[in-house]
Amino acid sequence: MKITKVRTRVFEWKGHTVTPTPHFCANAMDELWDKGDSMGTFRFHGWTTVEIETDTGLVGLGNVALAPRIAKAIIDQYLAPLVIGQDPFDYEYLWQRMYRSTHAWGRKGIGMAAISGVDIAIWDLMGKALGKPVFKLLGGRTKEKIPCYASKLYRTDLKSMQQEAQSYLDQGFKAMKMRFGYGPKDGPEGMRANLDSVAAVREVIGEDIDLMLECYMGWNLEYAKRMLPKLERFQPRWLEEPVIADDIDGYAELNQLTSIPISGGEHEFTHYGFRQLLEKRAVSVIQYDTNRVGGITAARKINAIAESFSVPVIPHAGQMHNYHLTMSTLASPMSEFFPVHDVEIGNELFYYLFEGDPEPVNGFLDLDDDTPGLGLSLNERYFDQFTIIE
Ligand SMILES: O=C(O)[C@H](O)[C@H](O)[C@@H](O)CO
Ligand SMILES: [Mg+2]
């Protein structure tokens, strides 16, 4: 089999979007004096699809969710020429070819996200060629079903957060993640508001449901050191991305500070990046996203390293390109799941763009043993809700 063409398209949502409320989600921009919508640059309302065609007629489907127009340009100009004419089953060679040839600028960030999109399409191709789901090429079925956690609960009034948390209990979820709305600039009142929102959700879900807390890089080391002891009474399953991704030593200090596990990794790249996080004991839960980290070729290597450190892997976002990794290894106990609803942050856009993702039932997802590849196709029903750039 030879790769004959790489077709990239950018899908930019033009449908209805929900305007977030102030303090919707603490984030890395909050430290600045900027006013207005600090979460603006963290809305993902565009997506790049990667379709790799072959001389057998099989087509592999990949995706990139960051800086879609840049990702498309990188793939079209730099990566496609490196894989066209090649055998997709030489996926390690092709990964190294893309990684090394763009090493001057592409080893992290959008360069590696673009490589991820091509790599995911290659693995989809290999599964389709062999008539096997991708997880069967990685390690097979390690779980009867995949436990997943409901991930939303952006900050709003406490009553609405409690109603939302109750709705996830009613759907059978045994775990859920909420977002903090305040950080260092909001002072003691913000700290109080953060604690009150956790107390409100804990009041609804009780002690036997896992609760994860998302800071989304919106705090700093000093603030996190003050907040963590105050949060211990809520026994969160983890506290996520308390500081910016480059403050690895800050992560490590927080991870040793209290009984609360620190999680991170959705903004880290390749097995080299995760080796650093693990060697420094910077995180107690790894959360790469396969469409950022280096695709399935890199993610499977990270799974093996994490297993040797006994650090669980719970990939960012759920979504099919991550579910296959979670299914294929005991190192990954569960998946994230973004409830499908109006387009807000953009996490939910995946379900408008693709079809084939499993629906959770009582907090569990399953993958089909007989669906070749990733099991995804483009969802043409919503094409009219997107501006499509070929
Ligand atoms: O962990 C997550 O789900 C991400 O950090 C979210 O995608 C981000 O939008 C912050 O909630
Ligand atoms: Mg996160």
From TrEMBL:
Pfam families: MR_MLE_C (PF13378), MR_MLE_N (PF02746). Residues 158-261 form the Mandelate racemase/muconate lactonizing enzyme C-terminal domain. It is an enzyme of class 4 (lyase). Its EC number is 4.2.1.90. It comes from the Bacteria. One of its GO terms (molecular function) is magnesium ion binding. Keywords: Magnesium, Metal-binding. Its cofactor is Mg(2+). The keyword Magnesium applies. Homooctamer; tetramer of dimers. Belongs to the mandelate racemase/muconate lactonizing enzyme family. RhamD subfamily. This is L-rhamnonate dehydratase. It comes from Halomonas heilongjiangensis. The lineage of its organism: Bacteria, Pseudomonadati, Pseudomonadota, Gammaproteobacteria, Oceanospirillales.
